[in-house]
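Predict the holo structure. Ligand: pyridoxal-5'-phosphate.
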Amino acid sequence: MVLGSRGNSALLSVREQIDCACRRVGRDPGEVELFAVSKFQPAGQVEPLLRAGHRMFAESRVQEANAKWAALRSEYPSVRLHLIGSLQSNKVTPAVSLFDSIESVDRDKIAIALANEMARRQCTLECLVQINVGLEPQKGGIHPAEAHAFILRCQTAYGLPVRGVMGVPPSGADPRPYFDLLRRLADRHDLPVVSMGMTSDFVAAIAAGATRLRIGRALFGERDR
Ligand SMILES: *Cc1c(COP(=O)(O)O)cnc(C)c1O
């Protein structure tokens, strides 16, 4: 058995399930991006996917991502790396230099800091507004009732390139009403990206109109923590 064949076959299997779920609801699989969530996975777990040609990855912490991806990114320059975890203001500078997208914009302070940092570096990063769809105190995201006004402030007051929304339904609950909420919010603002759907619920997310899935355990197995 060659090193990395497991990562490769998991990738093929997940892709097949995504394509199948798309066909069942009459969607084009080409409009659903698969981001491999490599948080808590060492570089050795990520490399089989890279060798298999996968290029879209997501991490939840700036420091961990920096350590893991600094070398990997020079070897694989076409990698797209997204931040999906909470961002602290003292990490905005390294985050803007490392990531291609910040999917977890959820408060004014961070939105302003990101806009300032992009202006300073004269770069534009895709930003998504994270919505705390289940009103869970332990989760990031802006309250759904404040999301509309927050998205408008990000776009008009701060000049942040908001391209979509991201959210995580409460675990154990039927995810569909939460997915519908995210999809409606994106439609209301004419935003092209709806980032929703993880290992346990990506089929429902596809049916609800996800354009981007964030999948960890189905690709890498259970995390150590
Ligand atoms: C960990 C994580 C995922 C991936 O979850 P899995 O259950 O491993 O697929 C997706 N999105 C966010 C925001 C996460 O923190």
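The chain has a mean pLDDT of 95. The longest strand covers residues 126-131.
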